[in-house]
């Protein structure tokens, strides 16, 4: 007999294991399996062949699209980090009363009361050729003609990404900042550090885990996105997510699965590299 | 005579809205002395220290150090250094980098600042642990690092905000001996905020007792303890009894209260024992007078147990009227 305690332990772990097996491991395993299948124009058939991957890695489009995806991720990351850090810094260190802190923090989350798509689409009338932005710029005399690059461009895509995902940077950074003992900032001042030096030598290093968690959020969200790119670029730009969604639309599941596997591997690789830099375990 | 690092508070006041945390205090700290700011929590002692350090704005009055008004200078330019209650060591920096932090802010190059930090760490016996992170140190070790970090700036005055409160009682007694030794070696004034009167008596050349935003009494530790000026000081320092007489309040030492032999009914005051506490060398006996006032008697242990008393028993107590101390308030 293994003992009742061991059995009890297994039973306690079983429900969560089951959930993870059904909803995480099994779907991913399925995607990996299907990525080796074959497809014709009208059917897919089980097989074990490397055709999908061969095609994927052999096509210059793949590299272009991956590059575009990295570009979106990198620019969005830089902007959300800059904005998110500033907002979190303001909330954590400039707002004195806790009530005000909570109120302002909730204010940040209000946009999340509506769906992603709605928030995204509401940019379209604003940025369009005859939209509010262009009309205002012309009325102020800043420009003579409507700006074309405001909508259906990389600018629009990145704007929407930043709008959608900045909060994912604010929350973890704010959280780590709130854990910084205020006495440390006084100690820094006592030791002659200027505001900028305190930021650089005390706050920034202590906020790193929060920055890293926010980075993982934003990077994974942007890397996996397809709908924002489609709407905001007017289907003129591509990223990996759109590659997959197009394949699915054409019922090319094996090819979509192969792209998904490569994307998944890429994102995991990025996260693995990030985790080499910062130990986030103490935050969790 | 104002020498290089004489510290003086002139009409120093701190207001938060309508509440006054420090009310118009004037004090000159003796040169090169170990001074304890003593008082119950909320008495304004910490605020006073933080104003001297520059972490709290002065509402009124000024702080003079070496004859120069430092009330509005930034903390690092005052010539003061502060050791924080929780030590406030930077958790992401090694012990050496913590100590070298202020030098790094000044732009001292790495080799020079590390050499200086190492020599400070030697001073506090922490040289061997210079590469550790603060989280890997015990409370006492962290305190030494905090001390080294404060001293590396060559302060004219060292300010300590309840430095021993985070330590366990044994370590506290050891660390306070080290603080005192260090102060004697360095010869700069230490201003140490505490709410423990035993700590203040053990350490201080001068004790400054604060209550309700003002200084109640300041002076050498023996004087403050033996001749309290007010009832508050007498009660706060402990070991004293305060009684009201026709000519005002008197205090007298609890260890000078004597138990009268039973049978002698014409001397001393009748009282009823309310509590007996064994304290090792002495026994603390509390007794209520007929007037309702409670007296504390610290009796030698052997004498007490020769004829022990229990709560509820009637006793007669006496003390030397001539040695009683008249209180001003």
Automatic annotation (TrEMBL), chain A:
Keywords linked to the UniProt accession: Cell membrane, Membrane, Transmembrane, Transmembrane helix, Transport
Matches recorded under PROSITE patterns: ABC_TM1 (PS50928)
Membrane topology reported for the UniProt record: Multi-pass membrane protein
GO cellular component: plasma membrane
Domain of life, source organism: Bacteria
Short name of one Pfam family: BPD_transp_1
Similarity field: Belongs to the binding-protein-dependent transport system permease family. CysTW subfamily.
Name of the featured protein: Putative spermidine/putrescine transport system permease protein
TrEMBL record, chain B:
Pfam families: ABC_tran, TOBE_2
Alphabetical UniProt keywords: ATP-binding, Nucleotide-binding, Transport
An annotated GO cellular component: ATP-binding cassette (ABC) transporter complex
Domain ABC transporter: 7-237
Origin: domain of life: Bacteria
Record carries keyword ATP-binding: yes
S-adenosyl-L-methionine in keyword set: no
Any Gene Ontology biological process: quaternary ammonium group transport
InterPro entries with a match to the protein in the record: AAA+_ATPase, ABC_SmlMolc_Importer, ABC_transporter-like_ATP-bd, ABC_transporter-like_CS, Mo/tungstate-bd_C_term_dom, P-loop_NTPase, Transp-assoc_OB_typ2
PROSITE patterns reported in the protein's UniProt record: ABC_TRANSPORTER_1 (PS00211), ABC_TRANSPORTER_2 (PS50893)
GO molecular function: ATP binding; ATP hydrolysis activity; transmembrane transporter activity
Protein name: Putative spermidine/putrescine transport system ATP-binding protein
Classification lineage: Bacteria, Pseudomonadati, Pseudomonadota, Alphaproteobacteria, Rhodobacterales
